[in-house]
């Protein structure tokens, strides 16, 4: 190759290399990747409580209502009939002998009046015969028999008349009235009116299940509080009937009620207490003093275990099996596994 051509080739190669080097210097430089910041893990927090010593009380708390100990169910027993008039309403005070329901008489009132006059006439005639010294014995005997006959007629009509009226057997307050209107037919032994004695009251406390009151016995004391017109008063009473002491009955509804009801007799009724008023009742069934106890939310159950989680040195979680005793609505007695001051983690 001629010397000139070699020089030209070398010069061209030098230019290409220079351009390549220059081009690389014009490209942007990559930034170095930053290291991720170091984040300290958040400190886990727990809601805790210290196991403490104190008293624990197991009680039944609920709302009860006042009802009468003595009630009378008014119903026709002789015969039914059509209603002429309903004479009372719920909440009305009645006296013994007051008419509650009147059936259609079918002229019985007129017949009774006529027979009453016939009886008086027979009695008057008998009196005249007896005072007449010349009266024959046969005439006197006939007058006596006639008077007896008229008396029997009167008594029968009076019974029929009375059977057309339903009267109150006691002084009291009407607590139930069947929905009746004139012309309605009522059967014998149909409950039409219930009258309650407002001077003899007790408290009725019903529960959802008999298991809730199985530990209550007759004689247990009860604390009662009633409120009326912004005024509150407290008094005491005693349990007088439980499901186990309830009387036997063939009435299915009543038997079911007895199975879920406690009856409480107040020691002394406060003033202005009425049938149907509500009261707050507390009955203590069990209590112990100076026991280790924790809130119910601190106890855990899993796979047959009963345990708590404790916090040691403020950071270490530890599961401890425990034995429990009494359980109230808010607290649990711990017999074994914890001591006073142990830090318990709540759920």
Automatic annotation (TrEMBL):
Q: Which Pfam families match?
A: RND-MFP_C
Q: Provide a GO CC annotation, any one.
A: cell envelope
Keyword terms, alphabetized: Coiled coil, Signal
- What PROSITE patterns does the annotation carry? PROKAR_LIPOPROTEIN
Whether DNA-binding counts among this entry's keywords is no
In terms of superkingdom, the source organism counts as Bacteria
- What span is annotated as the signal peptide, if there is one? 1-19
Write out the annotated subcellular location.
Cell envelope
Q: What is its main location?
A: other
Q: Give all residue intervals belonging to the Multidrug resistance protein MdtA-like C-terminal permuted SH3 domain.
A: 290-346
Is-annotated flag, keyword DNA repair? no
The cross-references to PANTHER family, in alphabetical order and at most eight, read: EFFLUX SYSTEM COMPONENT YKNX-RELATED
Q: What name appears for this protein in its UniProt entry?
A: Efflux RND transporter periplasmic adaptor subunit
Organism, as annotated: Cohnella thailandensis
Q: What is the lineage of its organism?
A: Bacteria, Bacillati, Bacillota, Bacilli, Bacillales
């Amino acid at each position: 190759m001629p010397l000139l051509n070699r020089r030209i080739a070398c010069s061209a190669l030098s230019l290409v290399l220079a351009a390549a080097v220059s081009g690389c210097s014009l490209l942007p430089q990559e930034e170095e990747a930053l290291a991720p910041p170091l984040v300290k893990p958040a400190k886990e927090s727990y809601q805790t409580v210290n196991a403490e010593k104190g008293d624990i009380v197991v009680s039944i708390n609920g709302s009860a209502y006042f009802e009468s100990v003595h009630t009378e169910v008014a119903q026709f027993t002789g015969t039914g009939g059509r209603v002429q008039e309903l004479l009372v309403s719920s909440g009305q005070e009645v006296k013994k002998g007051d008419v509650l329901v009147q059936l259609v008489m079918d002229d019985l009132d007129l017949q009774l009046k006529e027979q009453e006059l016939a009886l008086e006439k027979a009695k008057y005639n008998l009196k005249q015969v007896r005072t007449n010294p010349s009266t024959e014995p046969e005439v006197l005997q006939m007058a006596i028999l006639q008077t007896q006959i008229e008396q029997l007629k009167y008594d029968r009509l009076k019974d029929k008349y009375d059977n057309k009226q339903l009267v109150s057997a006691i002084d009291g307050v009407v607590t139930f009235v069947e929905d009746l209107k004139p012309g309605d037919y009522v059967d014998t032994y149909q409950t039409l009116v219930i009258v309650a004695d407002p001077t003899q009251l007790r408290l009725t406390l019903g529960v959802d299940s008999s298991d809730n009151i199985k530990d209550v016995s007759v004689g247990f004391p009860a604390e009662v509080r009633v409120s009326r017109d912004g005024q509150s008063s407290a008094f005491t009473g005693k349990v007088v009937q439980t499901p186990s002491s309830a009387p036997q009955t063939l009435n299915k509804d009543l038997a079911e009620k007895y199975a879920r009801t406690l009856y409480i007799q107040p020691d002394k009724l406060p003033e202005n207490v009425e049938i149907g008023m509500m009261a707050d009742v507390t009955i203590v069934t069990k209590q112990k003093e100076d026991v280790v106890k924790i809130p119910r939310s601190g106890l855990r159950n899993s796979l047959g275990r009963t345990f708590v989680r404790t916090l040691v040195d403020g950071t270490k979680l530890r599961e401890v099996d425990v034995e429990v005793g009494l359980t109230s609505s808010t607290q649990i007695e711990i017999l074994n596994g914890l001591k006073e001051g142990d830090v318990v983690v709540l759920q």
